[in-house]
Amino acid sequence: MKKSLAVLFLGFLMSCAGSKTPSEISSGAAPAVVPSALAPHVEAVRQQFAPDKRVALFDVKTNGIVLTGETNMPAAKTALLERLQTAGISFQDRIQVLPEAGLKDNHFAVVTLSVANLRSEPQHPAELATQATMGTPLRVWKQKSGWYLVQTPDKYLSWVDGSGIKLMDETTFATWQQGEKLLYTNPYGFAYAAPNTQGATVSDLVYGDVMVLKSQGKGFHEVSFPDGRTAFVSSTEVQKYTDWAATRQPTEQNLVETGKRLLGLPYLWGGTSFKGVDCSGFTKTVYFMNGLVLPRDASQQVHVGELVDTKDGFQNLRPGDLLFFGSPAKDGKNERVVHVGMWIGNNEFIHSAGRVRINSMDPAAPNHDASELKRFLRAKRVSPQASLIDLRTASLFQ
């Protein structure tokens, strides 16, 4: 399970230094205070604006009367300073508001690899936090040693190696977004240097990769990647993005059929693509393929949608409902959601555990999963309105 393609920027979107000169603000005549007087106000603002650090950055610390750190939310900083001024507390403001000046207006990026690995820290050995497929637009906040702190359309914050993205300023990004897009619809394949599947490849491709259409020939589309490379893709393996988005129907049948297309994929912590999925990466990918964007992690997905009554069994569940597993709140400890799967009917659910597989809640079934039944918490039904982004109406890649 992952702890706690295609996104928006505007919101669907959207998880890895020069610095601005800090301003110093004082509330005036109020006396200096002990360091602890600032901390409760910082925490209150953090809880208001950034209760989930995976999707909002408010890393502010206190050192005496000095506020240090950074945030990507100007409104959060403003709220903190106003709060301290109202309380009559003296302080010095050295909080940096991102994006940092060292990016030189390159506040946007687009993924250039078939699947880019986004990590929890700016280094390759760090935990794989999530993935983003080619063409995914990213918001860029800062850089460190060739790595960039980015935010995906589902708002997830993480670090990406600069070799996997194309940095863009606002004008360049707008130009890229205006290009006519193609979406790769095969689970896995290749883009070629010439209109010939026997020749050299330019890149591998996975379902959800987005490219710009340059021209169309016999059996192939010529495409361009975000970094300017050109290639040829079999015409039978791509679809115009606008056509793809318009034909998405997240029905019970389609969700189940899509889930079964992923059967056997290996479990990969942090994976959200046909190269491997963790539990929430699996449900996220299934819903994306049907035009809806879910939050990244199981502990975030559990807060989406309508609760389904399972007090007396699973008879109220419908195919496509999400099942959540973990440990309930007990003895002063908070609930922990650690796994998610999708109901497919007939007392069965599909999930990524070792590999994408189907298990049953029925103790008499040969594929019964007793451990998951024991730690079942609740189920949610996700409507298009409850998703983070409905790709049928949002302009994620346009």
Observed structural traits:
single chain, 398 residues, alpha+beta, Histidine-containing Protein, Chain: A, SH3 type barrels, seven-stranded antiparallel beta sheet, six-stranded antiparallel beta sheet, 27 strands, 34% strand, flat, disordered N terminus
Topology:
Layout: H1 39-49, E1 58-63, E2 66-71, H2 74-87, E3 92-97, E4 108-111, E5 115-119, E6 128-133, E7 137-144, E8 147-151, E9 157-161, E10 165-168, H3 170-178, E11 181-184, E12 188-192, E13 201-206, E14 210-216, E15 220-224, E16 230-234, E17 238-240, H4 241-246, H5 252-261, E18 272-273, E19 276-277, H6 279-289, E20 292-293, H7 298-301, E21 306-308, E22 322-327, E23 336-345, E24 348-353, E25 355-360, H8 370-374, E26 376-381, E27 389-390
Parallel strand pairs: 2-3
Antiparallel strand pairs: 1-2, 4-7, 4-10, 5-6, 5-9, 7-8, 8-9, 11-14, 11-17, 12-13, 14-15, 15-16, 18-19, 20-27, 21-26, 22-23, 22-26, 23-24, 24-25
Question: TL;DR of this structure?
Answer:
This protein is an alpha+beta fold and 398 residues long. 18% of the residues lie in helices and 34% in strands.
Strand content: 25-35%
The CATH superfamily of the largest domain bears the name: endopeptidase domain like (from Nostoc punctiforme)
**Tally of alpha and pi helices:** 8
Give the class-level CATH name of the largest domain: Alpha Beta
Alpha-carbon Rg, integer: 23 Å
Q: Give the termini separation.
A: 32 Å
In order across it, which strands form the biggest sheet? 6-5-9-8-7-4-10
CATH architectural group of the largest domain: Alpha-Beta Complex
What is the β-strand count?
27
